[in-house]
C-alpha cells in the first residue's frame, strides 16, 4: 500500500480492540479505536478513514444503525461488521444495509487483517473527495408567541433589525433560541448571506477547533483534504454559537482573538483568513456564574454580552400552548402526509397545565407522537402519551409516584426492615379506596366499579383495612 491506511475500530470489548489494533499496526496500517459509535458520524465530517470495522451490539448507537448512517453519508467508506452473535439475521441485515463484509466472532486475526486490506484497496479505488456544503439555506422562522414575555422578544428582534450587533440569547433548552437567532438573521442586513448554526455541546471537544476554523490538508491524522470551518462558511452572514458555555477554554481564547482581529488561521494553517461574521451566541447556563467559577473568560463574556434576549420557559407562557400545539400538529401532519389531528378541549386544557421541562421542543415532539400514535382524528386526554399522564401527579417535584415508591422502598430496606410489602400493599389499597370513594361522593357500589373490584371485595377490604367509612344508603 502506498500511504498507511487509516482504519477505525469500533467495539465496546476492550480485548477485541486491543487484538485488532495490534494486528493492523503490525500489518503497517494506522488503526484508531473507539469504545462506541456515538461520536463517529460527527468525526466523519472531519476525517474519513479508509475503512471501518465495527461491532454490531454496543451500548449507545448499535452497529447496524451506525452502518446505515455511514452508508448514507459516506458511501465510499467500506464498513466491516463484526458480531459475536453470528446468526443469519445479523449477516443478512448487515449486507442489506450495505456492509462491505460480515465477520463473525471469534475470528482468525489473519483473516480479519486480510479482509481489512481488501476493504482499504476497494475504497482507494472508488474514492472521490467530496466537500461538504454549507447549510446556508434560509429556513422558515414562524415564531408563535402572544404571551407578554414573547412580545418582548419580538420587540427586540424588530429593534435589532438594522444592526449587526452581537446578541446573547438566554433560555432553557428547547425554548426556541435557535429559532430566534435565525429570525434575528433573517431580519438583518445580512439576510442574503449564510446563517450557520453550531452547537458546542454536540461536538466532541477535540473537533471543535477544526469545526470552527477549518483545517489544512494533513493537519492531523486523517485530514485528507483541506476543509473550510464554520467561520469561513458564515462569511458575510451570521454564526450562531449554541451552548457557548460549553466551549473549551482554549477555543474561548481563539474565539476572542477572532472577534478582536477579524481573522484567524485554519488548524495547521499559516495564512491568516479574514472574515466578516456576526456572532449570535446562546446558552441555558448562567454565564456570569461560569465567569465567577473561572470556566468562562470574562473578556469573552463582555464581548458577547452586548445585547441580551431572554427566552422564557414554556411554563411561563402557558397561554401560547394551544396555538403552538395547533401549529405543530399541522406541521407534523404535513410531514407525514396525513390529516391533522384535532385537540379536544379536555386534552388541550390538560396539556396547558403540564410543567413541560423540555419546553417547546418537548411540545413539538408530543405533537409528532400524537400524529403517529393516536388512533382517532380527535385527541382526548386518554390518547396522550403515558409519561405525560403521570407527570400531572407530581408536577412540582418532577417525581412520579413510582419514583417516590422506589425511594420509600430503598429507605425501608436501608433501615433493615423486612417484609415491606406488608406495609406497602395495605397502604396502597387504602389510598386507592379512599380516592375512589372521594370521587363517588362515598358511594361504594360506584367506587368498586372505578377500582375494578366486585362490590363485596371492596366491603371486605374496607373492613380488613379498618377504614373509617360509613355504609351508604345503597348498601
Ligand atoms: N415560539 C415558537 N414558535 C414556533 N416554533 C417554535 C417556537 N419556539 C421553538 N419552536 C420550535 O421548537 C423546536 C426547538 O427550538 P430551538 O431548537 O430553537 O430551541 P433551542 O432553545 O435552541 O434548544 P437547544 O438549546 O436545546 O438547542 C424547534 O423545532 C423550533 O422550531
TrEMBL record:
<dbReference type="InterPro" id="IPR011006">
    <property type="entry name" value="CheY-like_superfamily"/>
</dbReference>
<dbReference type="GO" id="GO:0043565">
    <property type="term" value="F:sequence-specific DNA binding"/>
</dbReference>
<keyword id="KW-0547">Nucleotide-binding</keyword>
<keyword id="KW-0067">ATP-binding</keyword>
<keyword id="KW-0535">Nitrogen fixation</keyword>
<keyword id="KW-0238">DNA-binding</keyword>
<feature type="modified residue" description="4-aspartylphosphate">
    <location>
        <position position="55"/>
    </location>
</feature>
<dbReference type="InterPro" id="IPR027417">
    <property type="entry name" value="P-loop_NTPase"/>
</dbReference>
<keyword id="KW-0597">Phosphoprotein</keyword>
<dbReference type="GO" id="GO:0006808">
    <property type="term" value="P:regulation of nitrogen utilization"/>
</dbReference>
<dbReference type="InterPro" id="IPR010114">
    <property type="entry name" value="Transcript_reg_NtrC"/>
</dbReference>
<keyword id="KW-0963">Cytoplasm</keyword>
<dbReference type="InterPro" id="IPR025662">
    <property type="entry name" value="Sigma_54_int_dom_ATP-bd_1"/>
</dbReference>
<comment type="function">
    <text>Member of the two-component regulatory system NtrB/NtrC, which controls expression of the nitrogen-regulated (ntr) genes in response to nitrogen limitation. Phosphorylated NtrC binds directly to DNA and stimulates the formation of open promoter-sigma54-RNA polymerase complexes.</text>
</comment>
<dbReference type="InterPro" id="IPR025943">
    <property type="entry name" value="Sigma_54_int_dom_ATP-bd_2"/>
</dbReference>
<keyword id="KW-0010">Activator</keyword>
<dbReference type="Pfam" id="PF00072">
    <property type="entry name" value="Response_reg"/>
</dbReference>
<keyword id="KW-0804">Transcription</keyword>
<dbReference type="GO" id="GO:0006355">
    <property type="term" value="P:regulation of DNA-templated transcription"/>
</dbReference>
<dbReference type="InterPro" id="IPR058031">
    <property type="entry name" value="AAA_lid_NorR"/>
</dbReference>
<feature type="domain" description="Sigma-54 factor interaction">
    <location>
        <begin position="143"/>
        <end position="372"/>
    </location>
</feature>
<dbReference type="InterPro" id="IPR025944">
    <property type="entry name" value="Sigma_54_int_dom_CS"/>
</dbReference>
<dbReference type="Pfam" id="PF00158">
    <property type="entry name" value="Sigma54_activat"/>
</dbReference>
<dbReference type="InterPro" id="IPR002078">
    <property type="entry name" value="Sigma_54_int"/>
</dbReference>
<dbReference type="InterPro" id="IPR003593">
    <property type="entry name" value="AAA+_ATPase"/>
</dbReference>
<dbReference type="InterPro" id="IPR002197">
    <property type="entry name" value="HTH_Fis"/>
</dbReference>
<keyword id="KW-0678">Repressor</keyword>
<dbReference type="GO" id="GO:0000156">
    <property type="term" value="F:phosphorelay response regulator activity"/>
</dbReference>
<dbReference type="InterPro" id="IPR001789">
    <property type="entry name" value="Sig_transdc_resp-reg_receiver"/>
</dbReference>
<dbReference type="Pfam" id="PF25601">
    <property type="entry name" value="AAA_lid_14"/>
</dbReference>
<protein>
    <recommendedName>
        <fullName>DNA-binding transcriptional regulator NtrC</fullName>
    </recommendedName>
</protein>
<dbReference type="GO" id="GO:0005737">
    <property type="term" value="C:cytoplasm"/>
</dbReference>
<dbReference type="GO" id="GO:0005524">
    <property type="term" value="F:ATP binding"/>
</dbReference>
<dbReference type="InterPro" id="IPR009057">
    <property type="entry name" value="Homeodomain-like_sf"/>
</dbReference>
<keyword id="KW-0902">Two-component regulatory system</keyword>
<dbReference type="Pfam" id="PF02954">
    <property type="entry name" value="HTH_8"/>
</dbReference>
<feature type="domain" description="Response regulatory">
    <location>
        <begin position="6"/>
        <end position="120"/>
    </location>
</feature>
<keyword id="KW-0805">Transcription regulation</keyword>
Amino acid at each position: 500500500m502506498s500511504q498507511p491506511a487509516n482504519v477505525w475500530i469500533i467495539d465496546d470489548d476492550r480485548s477485541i480492540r486491543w487484538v485488532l489494533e495490534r494486528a493492523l499496526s503490525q500489518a503497517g496500517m494506522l488503526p484508531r479505536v473507539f469504545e462506541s459509535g456515538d461520536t463517529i458520524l460527527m468525526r466523519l465530517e472531519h476525517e474519513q478513514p479508509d475503512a471501518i470495522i465495527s461491532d454490531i451490539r454496543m451500548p449507545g448507537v448499535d452497529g447496524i444503525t451506525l452502518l446505515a448512517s455511514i452508508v448514507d453519508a459516506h458511501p465510499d467508506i467500506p464498513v466491516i461488521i463484526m458480531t459475536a452473535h453470528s446468526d443469519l439475521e445479523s449477516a443478512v441485515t448487515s449486507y442489506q444495509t450495505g456492509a462491505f463484509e460480515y465477520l463473525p466472532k471469534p475470528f482468525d486475526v489473519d483473516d480479519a487483517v486480510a479482509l481489512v486490506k481488501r476493504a482499504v484497496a476497494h475504497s482507494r479505488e472508488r474514492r472521490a473527495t467530496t466537500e461538504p456544503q454549507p447549510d446556508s439555506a434560509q429556513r422558515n422562522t414562524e415564531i408563535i408567541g402572544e404571551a407578554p414575555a414573547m412580545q418582548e422578544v419580538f420587540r427586540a428582534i424588530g429593534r435589532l433589525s438594522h444592526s449587526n450587533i452581537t446578541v446573547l440569547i438566554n433560555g432553557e433548552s428547547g425554548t426556541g433560541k435557535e429559532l430566534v437567532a435565525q429570525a434575528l438573521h433573517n431580519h438583518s442586513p445580512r439576510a442574503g448571506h449564510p446563517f450557520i448554526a453550531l452547537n458546542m455541546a454536540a461536538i466532541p471537544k477535540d473537533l471543535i477547533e477544526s469545526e470552527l476554523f477549518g483545517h489544512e490538508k494533513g493537519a492531523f491524522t486523517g485530514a485528507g483534504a483541506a476543509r473550510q470551518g464554520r467561520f469561513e462558511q458564515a462569511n458575510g452572514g451570521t454564526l450562531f454559537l449554541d451552548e457557548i458555555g460549553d466551549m473549551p477554554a482554549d477555543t474561548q481564547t481563539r474565539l476572542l482573538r477572532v472577534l478582536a482581529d477579524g481573522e484567524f488561521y485554519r488548524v495547521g494553517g499559516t495564512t491568516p483568513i479574514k472574515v466578516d461574521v456576526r456572532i449570535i451566541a446562546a446558552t441555558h447556563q448562567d454565564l456570569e456564574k461560569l465567569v465567577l467559577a473561572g470556566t468562562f473568560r470574562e473578556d469573552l463574556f463582555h464581548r458577547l454580552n452586548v445585547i441580551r434576549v431572554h427566552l422564557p420557559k414554556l411554563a411561563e407562557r402557558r397561554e401560547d400552548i394551544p396555538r403552538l400545539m395547533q401549529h405543530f400538529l399541522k406541521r407534523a401532519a404535513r410531514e407525514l402526509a396525513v390529516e391533522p389531528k384535532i385537540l379536544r378541549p379536555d386534552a388541550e386544557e390538560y396539556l396547558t397545565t403540564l410543567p413541560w421541562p423540555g419546553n417547546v421542543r418537548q411540545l413539538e415532539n408530543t405533537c409528532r407522537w400524537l400524529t403517529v400514535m393516536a388512533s382517532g382524528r380527535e385527541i382526548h386526554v386518554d390518547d396522550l402519551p403515558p409519561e405525560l399522564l403521570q407527570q400531572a401527579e407530581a408536577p412540582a417535584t418532577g417525581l412520579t409516584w413510582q419514583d417516590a415508591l422506589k425511594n420509600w422502598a430503598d429507605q425501608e430496606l436501608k433501615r433493615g426492615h423486612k417484609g415491606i410489602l406488608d406495609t406497602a400493599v395495605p397502604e396502597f389499597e387504602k389510598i386507592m379506596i379512599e380516592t375512589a370513594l372521594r370521587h363517588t361522593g362515598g358511594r361504594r357500589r360506584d367506587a368498586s366499579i372505578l377500582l375494578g373490584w366486585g362490590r363485596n371485595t371492596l366491603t371486605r377490604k374496607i373492613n380488613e383495612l379498618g377504614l373509617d367509612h360509613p355504609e351508604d344508603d345503597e348498601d
